[in-house]
Structure prediction request, 73 residues.
Amino acid sequence: MVKKLQITNNIRKLRFFANEMTQQELAERVGVSRQTIISIEAGKYSPSLELAFRICEIFGLKIEEVFDYEVQE
Prediction:
């Protein structure tokens, strides 16, 4: 049986502390649409590993400081 992972993130909080960076600004910096950032922040979409690392690079943080996961039964 494959267990489901619930991936969460701190992107909204990080944007706030990064001079209130908008979703559009972050999207442009990592090369995706604003809608993608909205979906990631809301937990409706899990980014690719490459995109996750690009987001982390923008904030100068390690991946575990931006993203977290929980195994669901």
Remarks:
- The helical segments are 11-17, 23-30, 34-41, 49-59, 63-66.
- The domain at 4-72 is CATH 1.10.260.40 (434 Repressor (Amino-terminal Domain)).
- The radius of gyration is 12 Å.
